[in-house]
Design a protein that fits this description.
- With 118 residues, this protein is mostly helical.
- The chain contains six helices and three strands, in the order αααβααββα.
- It has a three-stranded antiparallel beta sheet.
Length: 118
């Protein structure tokens, strides 16, 4: 039996929907963050990303649909650097959780400050 592309789409509609949604989130993130100068410190880049996502979702808790490795590539930094900055943000009580499934921002004012300042 020969399957057409349309047959495969119908058989895997959930997977296709998830793929398209995830890719659109990544594309949106990339386009909105393309203004960030790579000379900006990693802490400020990550805070800018988080604040942009807060503005998009209008919630302090949201699902980013992007892994930390993907975000590190997006922000032009090593994954270890990203992990270290996330740890700093948790120590400063700015973030509670940072996973692919959930980000919880605990202090929006501090996040806004670090987005713009060193």
């Amino acid at each position: 039996m020969d399957l057409t592309f349309e047959d495969l789409l119908q058989m895997n509609a959930g997977l296709v929907k998830n793929l398209l949604y995830s890719q659109s989130i990544k594309d949106l993130s990339y386009s909105r963050l393309s203004f960030i100068n790579m000379n900006v410190k990693p802490l400020n880049r990550i805070c800018s990303y988080l604040y942009e996502m807060y503005e998009r979702y209008q919630e302090k808790t949201f699902c980013p649909n992007i892994t930390q490795s993907e975000l590190a590539l997006l922000l032009n930094m090593h994954t270890v650097t990203l992990s270290n900055v996330i740890a700093q943000l948790k120590e400063k009580n700015i973030l509670e959780t940072f996973t692919k499934k959930q980000i919880i921002i605990t202090d929006l004012e501090k996040l806004r400050y670090y987005r713009l300042n060193s």
